[in-house]
Amino acid sequence: MVGKIVGTGSYVPDTIWDNHKIAQFVETSDEWIRERTGIGKRHIAGVDTTVSMAIEAAKRAVENAITNGAIASGEEIDAIFVCAVAPEILLPAVACEVQKEVGAIHAFAYDMNAACSGFVFAYNQAVSFMNIGMIKTALIIGSEHLSRITDWTDRGSCILFGDGAGAVVVTAASGPLGMVMHSDGSGGAALVCSHDGKMKMDGQKVFRFAVKSVPECVEELMRQMKIKEEDVDYYVLHQANQRIIEAAAKRLKVSMDKIPMNIGEYGNTSSASIPILLDEMNRKGMLEGGKRIVMAGFGAGLSWGAGYVLTQ
Ligand code: UT7
Question: Using CA positions, which residue lies closest to atom 18 of ligand 1?
Fold first, then answer.
């Protein structure tokens, strides 16, 4: 049993900060940011919150699943998982706030924090529940208000992050099972943030970890599933830095045609990056015709992992 994407949605705030705007706070340039990260701009939440962005993305995903004929209403959703690094509220869970807005009255709902690996971890968890017969349909959301924990005086990190939310409705389908999840707390100091503080990142350390861990976990997943490069239509990777994605493509010997990217538009939106990208692919028709997708995420923890998902 594997997950099949039947609906997607996303929401990003209207306010856009391009690289020139960032250069007003710290000594940097559009040229440096583009060359080192591939990022051109990011969306910044003003009145939006983790909850409001999650709800909007979730509503759009549920609507899309209804339009696709996959579900009749939100009542068919069995579980809701929200991944969020910096929710403004501690209680209730963001997922419960989403539940009441999408009419998922039968769903259980809770939040998870696995940083930028969150979406992949939550998806793998949903698939695990599907395989023990506990759920059939899950709504998985990444909603990140990173601008509120970004240190806007630190040019080594503030150039990267953006706000937004992405949501995906998945249903259980027959297909090959595979999942990979890893954590290494001994490397946790590379990316930290306290409750009332701002993110501190050792960019080079995270970079070195990412270029190794992303291809490794993709290879591990494909070995585990006994699938080959020709069995995968797309590799949807966490959008952290264009150079990390290109390095992973090179190591995996995969053409960039199979590795969609949107980091230029949104920056690094942590656990929201993969579902936002999946939603863009869906709107462009790229998910039509039963696609086979490998997803991989990595980030603070340290944590990294990969998952396999089908489309309608
Ligand atoms: O979602 C997971 C979380 N995070 C990540 O995935 C981040 C992974 N890391 C990265 O993406 C990269 O390490 C960064 C984009 C953060 C930094 O790029 P880098 O190529 O690793 O730069 P660096 O830290 O090695 O710095 C190179 C130089 C330094 O100057 P010197 O010492 O060579 O004179 C920095 O001071 O670039 C300087 N620098 C900058 N210059 C202009 C660092 N940040 C900036 C900046 N603008 N924003």
Answer: 36
Q: pLDDT under 50 in the chain at which residues? A: none
Whether this model's pTM surpasses 0.90 = yes
Ligand 1 atom, smallest distance to 26 CA: 48
Residues with catalytic function: 116, 238, 268
Which class for 21: exposed (0-12), middle (13-18), buried (19 or more C-beta within 10 A)? Answer: middle
Provide residues with CB under 6 Å of ligand 1: 28, 32, 36-37, 116, 155-156, 159-160, 191, 201, 203-204, 206-207, 210, 240-241, 268, 299
Which atom of ligand 1 is closest in space to residue 206's alpha carbon? Answer: 8
Q: SS3 of 66, please?
A: helix
Tens-digit pLDDT profile for residues 270-281: 999 999 999 999
Task: Note the pLDDT of residue 287.
Answer: 98
